[in-house]
Specification:
- The chain is of the alpha+beta class and about 130 residues long.
- The protein is built from five helices and four strands.
- It has a four-stranded antiparallel beta sheet.
C-alpha cells in the first residue's frame, strides 16, 4: 500500500507560491537577523539563560531553569507569557515544567517590535 493522492493540492501549491513570492529570499533573511537580535537581547537581559538550539532560523528555544534558580527574580515561562500578553505579545512554552521558552519571529515583525519585546522582558526582570 503505497501512494495516494492529494486532493485539492492546488490550494496548498498556491499557499506555497504566495509564501515564496512574499518572503523569499529577502524577507526570510531579515526575519532570521531579527531572531538573532532577539536572541542576543534575551541573553543580555538574562545572562543565565541557556540556548537550547543554535539560532539559525526564525525560532529561538531558551532554557530558563538557571534564570529561575540563580536569579533574585524567579522568572519562568508562565510569568513571561502572562506579562507579555498584557502588551499583545504572544510567546509560548515548549515543556510542561514551564522552563523552556519558545520564541518565533514572524516575517511581518520588524525591529521596533523586537525592541518592544525586549523592553517588556526587561521590565519583568527588573520588577
Amino acid at each position: 500500500m503505497f501512494g495516494g493522492g492529494w486532493r485539492q493540492s492546488g490550494i496548498l501549491a498556491a499557499a506555497a507560491l504566495h509564501a515564496l513570492d512574499t518572503t523569499f529570499p529577502d524577507q526570510i533573511r531579515q526575519t532570521h537577523m531579527l531572531a538573532q537580535h532577539l536572541h542576543q537581547g534575551m541573553r543580555a537581559i538574562m545572562p543565565n539563560v541557556k540556548t537550547i538550539y543554535p539560532v539559525e532560523t526564525n525560532m529561538i528555544f531558551l532554557d530558563l531553569s538557571d534564570v529561575y534558580t540563580k536569579s533574585k527574580k524567579k522568572v519562568d515561562v508562565p510569568m513571561l507569557t502572562k506579562h507579555l500578553a498584557r502588551h499583545n505579545i504572544r510567546i509560548g512554552g515548549y515543556d510542561t515544567a514551564g522552563m523552556v521558552l519558545r520564541l518565533v519571529v514572524h516575517y511581518q515583525v520588524n525591529q521596533t517590535d523586537i525592541d518592544q519585546v525586549l523592553k517588556h522582558v526587561r521590565d519583568v526582570i527588573s520588577q
